[in-house]
Write a structure and sequence with these properties.
Layout: H1 17-23, H2 33-40, H3 50-54, H4 61-69, H5 73-83, H6 87-93, H7 100-103, H8 105-110, H9 116-128, E1 144-148, H10 152-163, E2 167-172, H11 180-183, H12 194-202, E3 208-212, H13 222-228, E4 231-234, E5 240-241, E6 251-253, H14 254-263, E7 275-279, H15 283-294, E8 299-303, H16 315-323, E9 326-329, E10 332-338, E11 341-349, E12 355-365, E13 368-371, E14 375-376, E15 386-387, E16 390-391, E17 404-406, H17 418-436
Parallel strand pairs: 1-2, 1-4, 2-3, 4-17, 6-13, 7-8, 7-13, 8-9
Antiparallel strand pairs: 5-14, 10-11, 11-12, 15-16
Helix pairs in contact: 2-4, 2-9, 4-5, 4-9, 5-9, 6-9, 10-17, 14-15, 15-16
Amino acid sequence: MTTTPMTPGVVPGRLPPDAFAANFSDVAPPLDEHEARVAADRCYFCHDAPCITACPTGIDIPLFIRQIATGTADAAAMTILHDNIFGGMCGRVCPTETLCEGACVRMEAEGRPVEIGALQRYATDGLVLSGAHPFRRGAPTGKRVAVVGAGPAGLSCAHRLAAKGHDVVVFDARPKPGGLNEYGIASYKAVDGFAAAEVEWLLGIGGIELRLGQRLGQQVTLEALRADYDAVFLGMGLAGVNALGIDAPGQRDAVDFIAELRQTADLSTLPVGRDVVVIGGGMTAVDAAVQARLLGAQTVTIAYRRGQDRMAASRHEQDHAVKAGVRLMTNAAPLAAEGGAVVLAHTADLPDGRLLNTGERIGLPADMILTAIGQRLAGVPEGIALAGGKIAVTGPGRTSIAGVWAGGDCAAGGDDLTVTAVAEGRDAAEDIHAHLAGQPLAPVDAPDMRAE
């Protein structure tokens, strides 16, 4: 984690001390029992529910909402957690507007879906925050599995394997487990240390050992893991950050900015610029921009090289940024940083997908530049096949190396969402279990062996 360069204008304590707590309070406060019952009563309990199909983890959404409606929230939590062990965090951070709620019949009929995400949070919080872990380990199998990455994919895989009776050792490069949930989610989406509490609750099943400060390729190697364990799952995410090609004082990666914010106990000590420009158009860009504004930046601009309809961040998140006081500037590609400003080229999207530089230049004051133009796989194990810069996988996460599975952001084919990572870790665990139990594995196509 890097420290913000202390350039003129990048200073801590831009707001009164009490303003930070207010600004970073829960962006979507939880439903109380009455609110949850009212929200649940809006569900049609569809027999062929499109919301289930839209959920990457396939949760039986009508069932858990009916359980809430009948006053059995713990049963609803179990319905959720059987399919998505990170149901609590996903209830907070899932882009429900493009997944389950976007497919809701109420959305089609009325333009207002059932509050599925809020109801999921209501159900799971009661169980997770109680500390009681309802899952139990299966009979010991004597098998040991190594999991690389203590994020949503790795821990989802580890929990499912532990439930099958396998012993699991999870290796992670960072000093805390949780991955994206701990280091990469906007603070106002997961307040009061929920990410850490959820991981602690998950580990309550037993049979999972954490080894932190262990980076693949440095403290531990894939070759050694394959020799010492019966199977290996790779879920280490994307540790590399794409370079912008502009070098300026006050410039830093948005992912580092968010991580530092998440780990800072006193936000009044965190430096932020007066004029902040965030380069990118995804969720990381939005989270960084909104939080810079909440820290007291006077102007915050998201500059994205294509049109607004091409931004990876959902329209809901874009609207949230605008309401927080962030300006969206689209068709603006960064060229240089000079004299306390960012120089941007005005672009145009062509029908064939190419980007045209119109020759027009735009200058924005910037004493702090946050880059959020994507992440990449770092420390790729030797001999493993790649596809599109990520680990090539087939079926439930099988890689080109026998006995090695992968899932989450580091694996090709996903959409870099927490909920997708959870599903991929879970499904890989089922396949690993079948392999360790000597069951015939379902045939899948060979991984893409393109050189990268």
